[in-house]
Design goal:
By secondary structure, the protein is α/β, with parallel strands linked by helices. The protein has 29 helices and 19 strands. The structure holds 3-hydroxybutanoyl-coenzyme A (3HC).
Length: 690
């Protein structure tokens, strides 16, 4: 372990270096060390200025999140910052890596900030359902003005060093490899030139013009209403910045504290903090340690240039990994490559990508109709129809074509990876890599581990997922793996309730109000009823709509009719079909209030999640949550189905499911594992299958 704090002196400048791996989080020991060092420097007669810097990979990455929710030990972050700000010697923060949250706030309490060009700075607390609670909402607007501060703090996105220099957050850039020397020289020069000991808190020039300007805040609220829906933190952040403009510093910082504490006690923030750690857990596999060897993936092969294959391909192209894309016919290949280009070009139109970057990405693609062309691929991902015999045929061929050591993966959503693996001569090299549609956008990647999948494949997939910016979740083989399996029951219940006479519009509204972007019927219409209804062997509302050429938004509407602005109204024809199907099946009609609708839709998801844990399909309850958040946009401030169930109370969920079971049948039978957790007080979000 490095020394936590070192104190050195050069040219009359004290250099305080904190080194607390991995990210110099501002835990109690670090705060104490900073205070001690600043007090020492204050007394040090040979020192005119102080440089505060960090060792390791980054400047302070923020408050220590693991301390949240526990009693705080003095010196608190605020007390530490007071000591820095009150320093009798001129202070300079010397920044590398990411100065985030409390780290950024620490830098803002120094008189000057110097950073290397690769450094970033920002206030990401909003991602934890919090606000910067150590003066960030008060000091940042004083440096950058109100509009930029509103954007930066409510988005949580860090800015790079050049932007920070432009905005006046950084005062100077250092040489990339000479931060320490440049910072000392800078501090020395500031003292020698009698530069003022600027306290950011005293600056009014950038905020004065916003005094009494309510509009700037209200317009910001209106503009972002959709984005902020359901989250508590953005509104509190806006209130803090209003206070920064309107109140004297001491009063507004007290207001910041109050609004911070309010968030700290909220379920929304507890959920988001849980998600922060849960996301970092998913790559940890008990029997596959991080030092398990990985295979080198220099070239990828993708079979199938349809919607999924194309999306999967884009992930690799964007990461600079060459892809051999295989289709059966030239037409299908041209169509697939054309869609990839079109998708990239739409990113250019949205300003997210340059045309040069598009050409670079497209340069990595090698389209072909020859399966044999996959002979040099290190990883081959099959993304063809969900039909076992087709998959087996392909994997049989791959066993002969692929080079030794190549990974053979299937993007199947439901099928048995072990059966697919058995069709090759190398089942240890076979795994599932299950992407979520649209595959170039949705962040979830389910890594499916077969009976014989070798451990180095799993570690390779974990490392690879980071490279293509996906969040990996490991699943054992089981119908639908994790996310699809637990979420499918919601769709089934939505359909059942509609047949029982509950309006699809009410069902969609309840789900929207819970925090999803849309309800199940809106989603069916968006995805396409032909896609949803494809596997149906029985007469369903979706299959009847398709029979009338109503495919959803893409053709003639579905459950809803759409006007030219895509405004939806419930379709009278769809309602007639629902009634017709319900009558034919003799479904009893019910009425249900919003609470019951929500319970009918989401408690079965919780129940299915409990089964997935019990069957050892998922390693952790929190992995299920991450799969639902990253694969199905489960609202992050609910923490996912398992965390949410814990907040509702497992007792209550079991009792309600039992009641539904009596009324509607075995689809609701509580899983014995759920009953066991409810009885023992174990929380689903904390379950770990070792
Ligand atoms: N507190 C405690 N642990 C932290 C932490 C923090 N603020 N930030 C990161 N860690 C831990 C991670 O959990 C992880 O632990 P593990 O190895 O045991 O899983 C380890 O540090 C490394 O983190 P990453 O895997 O995320 O490493 P990366 O290099 O990918 O990213 C990072 C580094 C950009 C600093 C990223 O970790 C990050 O974004 N951290 C959170 C930053 C943040 O939100 N800061 C604000 C905190 S709240 C605050 O400051 C409130 C204040 O206003 C009062």
């Amino acid at each position: 372990m490095p020394e936590l704090m070192t104190y050195e002196r050069e040219y009359g400048v004290a250099i305080i270096t904190i080194d607390s791996p991995p990210v110099n989080a501002l835990g109690h020991a670090v705060r104490s060390a900073v205070v001690e060092a600043f007090e020492k420097a204050a007394q040090d007669k040979d020192v005119d200025a102080i440089v505060l810097t960090c060792g390791g990979r980054t400047f302070f990455a923020g408050a220590d999140i693991t301390e949240f929710g526990k009693p705080m030990k003095s010196p608190h972050l605020g007390e530490m910052l007071d000591v820095i700000e009150a320093s009798p010697k001129l202070t300079v923060a010397a920044i590398h890596g990411t100065a985030l949250g409390g780290g950024c706030e620490t830098a803002l309490c120094c008189n000057y900030r110097i950073a290397i060009p690769s450094a970033k700075i920002g206030l990401p607390e909003v991602n934890l359902g919090l606000l910067p609670g150590a003066g960030g909402t008060q000091r940042l607007p004083r440096l950058v003005g109100v509009p930029i501060a509103l954007d930066m703090i409510t988005s949580g996105k860090p800015i790079n060093a050049n932007t920070a220099l432009d905005y006046g957050v950084f005062d100077k850039l250092a040489d990339e490899v000479a931060l320490r020397a440049d910072a000392v020289a800078y501090a020395r020069a500031l003292v020698d030139n009698e530069a003022p000991k600027v306290r950011v808190r005293d600056r009014e020039d950038k905020i004065a013009e916003y005094k009494g300007n309510i509009e700037v805040f209200d317009n910001f609220r209106k503009k972002n209403a959709r984005k902020f829906r359901g989250f508590k933190a953005p509104e509190n952040i806006i209130k803090c910045i209003e206070a920064a403009v309107e109140l004297p510093f001491d009063e507004s910082i007290a207001r910041e504290r109050e609004l911070f504490m309010e968030l700290m006690g909220s379920i929304e923030s507890a959920a988001q903090r849980y998600v922060f750690f849960a996301e970092r857990q998913t790559a940890k596999v008990p029997d596959v340690p991080n030092d398990t060897p990985t295979r080198d993936i220099k070239r990828v092969g993708v079979i199938g240039a349809g919607t999924m294959g194309g999306g999967i391909t884009m992930n690799f192209l964007s990461a600079g990994v060459p892809v051999t894309l295989v289709e059966q016919t030239e037409e299908a290949l041209d169509r697939g490559v054309g869609v990839i280009r079109k998708n990239y070009e739409s990113s250019v139109r949205k300003g997210r990508m340059s045309m040069d970057a598009v050409e670079t990405a497209m340069g990595f693609i090698n389209p072909t109709t020859e399966l044999e062309a996959l002979g040099d691929a290190d990883l081959i991902i099959e993304a063809v129809f969900e039909q076992m015999d087709i998959k087996k045929e392909i994997f049989g061929k791959l066993g002969k074509i692929a080079k030794d050591g190549a990974i053979l993966a299937s993007n199947t959503s439901y099928l048995d990876i072990d059966e697919i693996a058995a069709s090759t001569n190398r089942p240890q090299d076979v795994m599932g890599l299950h992407f979520f549609s649209p595959a170039n956008i949705m962040p979830l990647l389910e890594i499916v581990r077969g009976e014989n999948t070798s451990k180095d494949l799993i570690n390779t997939a974990m490392v690879l997922s980071k490279k293509i910016r996906k969040t990996p979740v490991l699943s054992r083989v089981g119908h639908g793996f994790i996310a699809n399996r637990v979420m499918t029951v919601r769709g089934k219940q939505a359909n059942m309730m509609a047949l029982q006479g509950v309006s699809p519009a009410d069902i969609d509204r309840v789900i929207f109000d819970y925090g999803f972007a849309m309800g199940p019927f809106q989603m069916f219409d968006l995805v396409g009823l032909d896609v949803i209804g494809r596997d149906a062997n029985e007469k369903t509302v979706a299959s009847e709509l398709v029979a009338r050429d109503r495919l959803g938004q893409k053709k003639n509407g579905g459950y809803y009719d759409y006007d030219e602005n895509r405004k939806a109204t419930l379709s009278p024809l769809a309602m007639d079909i629902i009634k017709e199907v319900a009558d034919e099946k003799g479904v009893d009609q019910i009425s249900a209030d919003d609470d019951e609708i929500l319970a009918r839709l989401l408690y079965p998801v919780v129940n299915e999640g409990a089964k997935v844990l019990d069957e050892n399909i998922a390693i952790r309850g929190s992995d299920i949550d991450i799969a639902c958040i990253k694969g199905y946009n489960w609202p992050v401030y609910r923490g996912g189905p398992m965390f949410w169930a814990d907040t509702v109370g497992l007792d209550k969920i079991v009792a309600t499911l039992s009641d539904f079971e009596k009324r509607f049948g075995e689809a609701f039978t509580p899983s014995p594992f759920l009953e066991k957790c409810a009885a023992s007080g174990e929380r689903l979000s904390q379950v770990v299958n070792e």
